[in-house]
Specification:
Elements (H helix, E strand, L loop, with lengths): L2 E7 L18 H4 L7 E6 L2 E6 L7 E5 L4 H17 L2 E8 L12 H22 L5 E7 L2 H9 L4 E7 L13 H9 L4 E4 L11 E4 L6 H15 L3 E7 L8 H4 L2 H4 L3 H17 L5 E7 L2 H8 L5 E6 L6 H5 L1 H9 L4 E5 L2
Parallel strand pairs: 4-5, 4-7, 5-6, 7-8, 9-10, 9-12, 10-11, 12-13
Antiparallel strand pairs: 1-2, 2-3, 8-13
Helix pairs in contact: 2-3, 4-5, 6-9, 10-12
Length: about 350
């Protein structure tokens, strides 16, 4: 007998003909209040059957913008990613609170008007990159890093996107302090977008798997990114060996550089459950010898995204990121997603 879904509700849907109202999720009354004990109402023949369902909170991609070219490129990347994930885009610009000791303070309304102009420009770039994507805007009086981190911890934030560098800081630094702080401390994945043009969405996603138990979350985020973009995924496990310390004749031999069959099989086994969960993703695994940063950035030369893990909760940013994520942020040829596993 065919089961026909009637509605997703917070209170039981009426049996057809028993009442004039519509109590489904899209009814005006239910838009104004949260649903309680949601369930799916199905018609099985003439009977009404209910099944509990999980309510999926509307997700968003959060991007920080300060009007710089790099931040506007990050807005374009974030808008395209929000469209791929069917999320809203949240643009945020942060204004430092005026110091009471300052010799001159700009009127707050002028500062906010300037911030709104930045968000207007960001919305234009977002609309051009991903027409139809819903954009939310926010101006806050706070430091950019703290404002982004606070909102990263809010329900519904799926991803935070920042530019490599903003308007402030030292021009000689490869990665700005805001990007560093957010990547090191965010509770959700962070994508740091550099100055190079983004690759096509169908380009591959590259992820580093270090063989640890915590790597599963990192690889899972990479599968999700590849699935939304429609491109392939390459899972790279770097085997650090003693090659730099061997005599040149030995280190260059095929035998010295050949990974054992157990390495590849172990990686395939680790990826197996995620292959089953994402059957639409074309996956390639490889085990390479070398140093993690060099091997991963080399693998990502034509990628649209490089995904790395960061572990630990150390107070120092570099240690909180880990040496691999720290190095990749400086050298990657494409946007980098940092996923915390600690």
């Amino acid at each position: 007998m065919e089961a026909r879904p009637a509605a997703v509700c917070g209170t039981p849907a009426p049996v057809p003909g028993s009442g004039p109202g519509r109590t489904g999720r899209d009814s005006p009354g239910n838009r104004e209040r949260p649903l309680r004990e949601p369930f799916l109402v199905m018609m099985v023949g003439d009977a009404v059957v209910t099944r509990p369902v999980e309510v999926v909170m509307e997700r968003s991609v959060l991007v920080g913008v300060d009007g710089s070219d790099e931040s506007l490129r990050s807005v374009e990347w974030a808008a395209a990613e929000a469209a791929r994930r069917h999320c809203r885009l949240r643009t945020l610009t942060a204004l430092p609170a005026p110091s009471p000791d300052a010799a001159f303070v700009w009127p707050e309304e002028e500062i906010r008007a300037s911030a709104r102009a930045v968000l207007d420009l960001a919305e234009e770039r977002a609309s051009a990159a991903a027409p139809g994507t819903a954009v939310d805007r926010e101006v806050v009086m706070d430091s950019p890093g703290r404002a982004l981190l606070e909102r990263a911890g809010q329900d519904g934030t799926a991803l935070v996107v920042v530019g490599h560098r903003g308007r402030g800081g030292f021009s000689g630094l490869r990665v700005g302090s805001v990007a560093y702080r957010v990547a090191a401390q965010s509770s959700v994945p962070v994508v740091v977008v550099g100055p190079r043009p983004a690759a096509d969405a169908s380009a591959e996603v590259v992820v580093g798997d270090d063989g640890s138990a915590r790597a599963e979350r990192v690889v899972a985020e990479a599968f999700e990114a590849a699935s939304t973009g429609g491109g392939p995924l390459r899972v790279v496990r770097v085997r650090e060996s003693a090659l730099p310390f061997l005599p040149p004749a030995v280190a260059s031999s095929p035998r010295a550089r050949e990974s054992g069959p157990g390495d590849g099989l172990a990686l395939e086994r680790a990826v197996g459950p995620l292959r089953a969960r994402y059957p639409e993703v074309e996956v390639r695994t490889e085990v390479v010898d070398g140093r993690p940063v060099a091997a991963l950035t080399d693998a990502a030369r034509a990628a649209r995204l490089l995904v790395v893990g960061a572990g630990g909760e150390h107070g120092l940013t570099r240690l909180a990121l880990g040496s691999a994520a720290h190095g990749v942020l400086h050298r990657s040829p494409c946007p980098v997603m940092v996923v915390h596993t600690g």
